[in-house]
Amino acid sequence: MSTRLPLRALGCAFWLAACAAPALAGDDHGHDSAPAATGTVLPRFAIASDAFELVGVVDDRRIDLYLDHFADGSPVGDARLELEVDGRSVPVSAHGAGQFEGRLETALAPGVLSVAATVVAGATSDLLAGELDIHDDAHADAAAPGAHGPLRYAAWLAAGGGGLLLFAALRRRRQAHARIGGGAA
After folding, report:
1. What is the DSSP letter of 172?
2. Adjacent-strand bridge partners of 98
3. pLDDT (tens digit, 9 = 90+) per residue, 69-79?
4. If I label 118, which of 65, 91, 111, 124 is the partner at 20 to 30 A Cα–Cα?
């Protein structure tokens, strides 16, 4: 009876380890890492000065632009905006207070592109400059699968199943050994 307890404890420990292992966090699940992207994220830029902040969202050949006062974040009304991306002038039209739309002749190529905007609002004018970083879509698609894919779960299930088979084999051997020893006693 004293040898049955270690065998049961070993089997329970192996079973618990096999079941709990998929729940363990991998290297990419630390508290300091950014959350994984779940959808398409459009390229964007944000450039600011003491007076204005301009945010642009690029969707193929269209750039949605949002112009706010830097101090309080309120939209800039009655503003005129001129935009250059990668040295090319982009025609811009107003669509409401602080909202503009730019149209590119061709889609932007991947890379780090310079962005410059001239803002004139009433008596205030300013030049804003920054960068737009456009990534190649092939890299984003390759990084999408998580570390906990189906193959990793299958490996843990196989390990758990192997542990159960080992436990069952040891138990049968123990029972057979007890029958042999029990008949002689």
Report:
1. H
2. none
3. 999 999 998 89
4. 111
Q: What is the DSSP letter of 36?
A: P
Q: Please check the confidence at residue 138 and state whether its pLDDT lies above 70.
A: no
Residue of 92, 138, 151, 153 lying closest to 118 (CA atoms): 92
Q: What torsion do the CA atoms of 43, 48, 51, 55 make, to the nearest 10 degrees?
A: 10
In the beta sheet, which residues pair with residue 88?
Answer: 85
The strand pairing partners of 113, in sequence order, are 132
Residue 91 CB neighbour total at 10 angstroms: 11
- Alpha helices (runs of H) in the chain, residue ranges in sequence order: 4-20, 137-143, 150-184
Q: Which residues pair with 103 in a beta bridge?
A: 62
Would you kindly state where each structural domain of the chain is located, as residue ranges?
4-26+147-184, 44-138
Tokens 């618990």 correspond to: 16
Residues 6+ apart with CB under 8 A from 7: 167, 170, 171, 174
CATH number of 44-138: 2.60.40.1080
Q: How far apart are CA 54 and CA 99, in angstroms?
A: 10
